[in-house]
Design a protein that fits this description.
Number of strands: 0
GO molecular function, one term: metal ion binding
Number of domains: 2
Order of helices and strands: HHHHHHHHH
Structural class: mainly alpha
Main location: membrane
CATH architecture of the largest domain: Up-down Bundle
Shape: globular
Largest sheet: none
Bound molecules: zinc ion
Helix content: 55-70%
Distance between the termini: 51 Å
Oligomer: single chain
Binding site for Zn(2+): 135, 275, 279
CATH class of the largest domain: Mainly Alpha
Protein name: Progestin and adipoQ receptor family member IVa
Transmembrane segments: 22-40, 88-108, 114-137, 177-200, 212-229, 241-257, 277-294
CATH topology of the largest domain: Rhopdopsin 7-helix transmembrane proteins
Radius of gyration: 22 Å
Length: 308
């Protein structure tokens, strides 16, 4: 008969080896990409004026535009330097990390509302997935039509994290008021559906931002409920959620204002331009959402609502 302690040791050893393998896998993928980059020569890149009109959305990025390409050539562009490479990898690498590490990081056995964990996991993946597809295939030979479809997909990803990401927050804040909780969740889903429609059909980034604004306002009213002590939730999560929104807003403002490339057009064509900075801030924002939701999910399992 194997003793309990030996069994636990074997399980822990297996988990340890599993985590190590994940890191080795990432290392392998990264090395392969770097190796391929060293040997693959890309096509001749275009400057702003000679790139297709639908790709001329940032007049401060002067060079490094990929020519119109087939699906295979778009995928090949993962392995040579151009002005969308940073955008692809700043969301591509976190997408792979989140896909593997988030399920391992959610304490499934300790949380009592499993569907909130699943919804949260999907919410965290959606913006990066839409973004990677948009940036990778935006120069597809299908032209403007394909570009606008991909842009809608990218916007949809942001809408999904705004919608799905907020459900655990609404659920936890109103934990002790089940009827109001159900109504609030339904209202939020319905209004979010309308916001998604508005954001996807918006013709400018300012209009798009406006359709996200009311969702932020709705979330903020829940933060306010928590702050005045009327809403439920872990005492530590509100701080995380405020950081989440602060980083997202900062990213949005930097992106719209085209900082820093507007001050030195051409200098930030490949690295550190406004869109890449926004991507990094969005990843930070998702991490804060994750930490806040984790605190809340654990809080739900340990909290008993007052009986009166
Ligand atoms: Zn992007």
């Amino acid at each position: 008969m194997v003793s309990h302690r030996v069994l636990v040791t074997i399980i822990l050893l297996n988990v340890y080896i599993g985590v190590q393998s994940v890191f080795y896998l990432f290392g392998g993928v990264l090395l392969t990409i770097l190796f391929a980059m060293a040997f693959l020569n890309g096509p001749r890149l275009l400057d702003w004026a000679s790139s297709p009109p639908h790709l001329q959305f940032n007049k401060y990025v002067l060079t490094g535009y990929r020519p119109i390409s087939s699906v295979q050539d778009c995928i090949r562009s993962l392995f040579y330097l151009h002005n969308e490479l940073g955008n692809i990898y700043t969301h591509g690498i976190p997408l792979l990390c989140f896909l593997v590490l988030l399920p391992l990081n959610i304490p499934w056995s300790q949380i009592s509302v499993t569907w909130l964990g699943v919804v949260h996991f999907l919410a965290c993946l959606s913006p990066q997935l839409g973004s990677v597809l948009y940036h990778l295939f935006m120069n597809h030979e299908g032209g403007e039509h394909v570009y606008h479809t991909l842009l809608k997909l990218d916007v949809c990803g942001i809408c999904m994290i705004n919608t799905l990401g907020a459900l655990p927050i609404v659920y936890t804040t109103l934990l002790c008021y089940p009827f109001i909780q159900t109504v609030a969740l339904l209202v939020y889903i319905l209004l979010s559906t309308h916001a998604i429609y508005c954001a996807v059909t918006a013709r400018s980034s300012v209009r798009r931002l406006r359709s996200f604004a009311w969702q932020a306002l709705f979330r903020f009213s829940f933060f306010l409920l928590r702050w005045v002590g009327l809403g439920g939730g872990s005492p530590t999560s509100l701080r995380h959620f405020l950081m989440m929104d602060a980083l997202a807003v900062l990213g949005g403002v930097i992106n719209i204002m085209r900082i820093p490339e507007r001050f030195r057009p051409g200098l930030f064509d490949y690295w550190c331009n406004s869109h890449q900075i926004m991507h990094v801030l969005v990843v930070g924002s998702i991490l804060y959402l994750h930490w806040g939701v984790l605190d809340d999910l654990l809080w739900i399992s340990s909290y008993n609502c007052p009986s009166d």
